C-alpha cells in the first residue's frame, strides 16, 4: 500500500493505498452519494477539512453544494463539477466516484464510520496542536537561554538522548515505565524476559552482536542502550493497536512496511534508521495510510 500524503499544491497523490482512514472516508462519501438525504445528518457532523485526503474534502464540499442547489448529487453530475480538480483524473475520474457508491456504508456501519472519521480528524487536530505548543515552548526556551547567555541543548535530543546522558527518561507507556529506570538505566534482563527471549536473541533483534548483552561493559554502552531503547519505543507505540507486546514484537520483526521499501521495523532499526519508523508511525497517528 502507498502512503497518501498531502501535496503542496493540494493535488492528491495517486496510488492504490487502501488504509483504514481512506476506507472510512470512502464509505462515508459513498453513503452520501447513494442517499443525498443523509446530508441533513452529515453536514452538522463534519467539515471538508475533516478528511485527511484533500480530494475527499473537496468531494464532500461539492456534494453539499449540489444538494444545497436542489440538484441530485450523483457521480455523473459530480464528475462534471470536479473535472478540473488536479486530483480527479489521477485518482480515476468518474470511475473513482462510482466506486465510492459501491463502498457506501449504511445503518449502524455508517454511524461507526462517521464516528471513526471524526476521531481521526480530532486526533490530527490534537497532534497539530501539541506540535504548535511544543514549538512555542521551544521558542520560549531558546529565548530564555539567549537572555541568560546559556548554551542551549540540541533540539534533536529525544528521550533516548536524555537517557544516554544519564538524565531521567520519560515513562511514556507502561511498558517503558517498567523497563526504564528513573536514571535512564535499562533492565536488560527484564526486557529479554518480557519478550520471552534469551539475551543473545534480544541482541540480534536490536542489531547487536549476540554476545553484547552478556558482557557487562558492552551491555551498558551508549550504543547498546540507544539501540534497545529505539526498539522499545517503537514496540510501546504500537502495542495497543497490535493487541499486546507479543503481537507488537511480531509486527516489529516480520511485517514488511510497503511505504519503507517493504523493510521491517527490525531491519530499519538494525541499520540505524529507527527515525524512519518513527516518522512512519507519526504519519499513521496523523490519520495517514499504511
Give the integer mean of the pLDDT values: 75
Number of helices: 15
Structural class: mainly alpha
C-alpha Rg (nearest Å): 24 Å
Beta content:
under 5%
Low-confidence stretches: 1-19, 152-172
Q: How would you sum up this structure, described in words?
A:
- There is one protein chain.
- This protein has 15 helices and no strands.
- The termini are close together.
- Helix 1 runs parallel beside helix 3.
- It has 290 residues and is an all-alpha fold.
- The chain has helices at residues 20-34, 39-42, 54-68, 75-82, 94-102, 107-148, 159-164, 174-179, 188-194, 199-205, 216-219, 222-242, 245-254, 265-270, 274-285.
- It is elongated, with a radius of gyration of 24 Å.
Keywords, please?
single chain; 290 residues; mainly alpha
Brief sketch in words of this structure:
The chain has 290 residues and is mostly helical. The protein has helices at residues 20-34, 39-42, 54-68, 75-82, 94-102, 107-148, 159-164, 174-179, 188-194, 199-205, 216-219, 222-242, 245-254, 265-270, 274-285. Helix 1 (20-34) crosses helix 5, helix 1 (20-34) packs across helix 6 (107-148) and helix 12 crosses helix 13.
Amino acid at each position: 500500500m502507498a502512503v497518501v500524503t498531502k501535496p503542496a499544491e493540494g493535488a492528491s497523490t495517486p496510488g492504490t493505498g487502501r488504509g483504514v482512514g481512506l476506507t472510512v472516508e470512502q464509505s462515508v462519501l459513498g453513503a452520501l452519494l447513494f442517499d443525498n438525504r443523509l446530508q441533513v445528518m452529515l453536514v452538522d457532523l463534519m467539515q471538508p477539512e475533516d478528511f485527511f485526503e484533500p480530494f475527499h474534502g473537496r468531494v464532500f464540499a461539492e456534494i453539499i453544494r449540489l444538494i444545497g442547489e436542489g440538484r441530485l448529487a450523483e457521480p455523473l453530475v459530480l464528475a462534471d463539477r470536479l473535472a478540473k480538480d488536479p486530483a480527479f483524473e489521477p485518482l480515476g475520474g468518474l470511475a473513482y466516484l462510482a466506486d465510492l457508491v459501491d463502498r457506501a456504508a449504511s445503518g449502524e456501519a455508517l454511524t461507526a464510520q462517521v464516528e471513526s472519521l471524526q476521531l481521526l480528524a480530532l486526533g490530527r487536530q490534537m497532534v497539530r496542536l501539541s506540535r504548535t505548543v511544543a514549538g512555542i515552548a521551544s521558542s520560549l526556551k531558546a529565548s530564555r537561554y539567549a537572555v541568560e547567555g546559556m548554551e542551549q541543548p540540541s533540539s534533536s535530543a529525544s528521550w533516548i538522548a536524555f537517557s544516554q546522558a544519564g538524565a531521567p527518561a520519560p515513562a511514556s507507556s507502561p511498558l517503558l515505565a517498567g523497563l526504564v529506570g528513573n536514571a535512564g538505566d535499562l533492565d536488560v534482563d527484564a526486557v529479554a524476559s518480557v519478550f520471552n527471549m534469551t539475551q543473545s536473541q534480544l541482541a540480534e533483534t536490536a542489531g547487536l552482536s549476540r554476545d553484547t548483552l552478556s558482557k557487562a561493559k558492552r551491555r551498558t554502552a551508549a550504543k547498546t542502550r540507544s539501540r534497545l531503547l529505539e526498539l522499545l519505543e517503537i514496540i510501546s507505540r504500537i502495542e495497543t493497536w497490535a493487541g499486546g507486546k507479543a503481537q507488537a514484537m511480531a509486527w516489529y520483526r516480520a511485517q514488511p512496511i510497503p511505504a519503507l521499501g517493504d523493510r521491517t521495523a527490525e531491519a530499519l532499526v538494525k541499520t540505524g534508521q529507527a527515525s524512519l519508523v518513527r516518522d512512519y508511525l507519526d504519519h499513521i497517528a496523523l490519520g495517514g495510510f499504511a
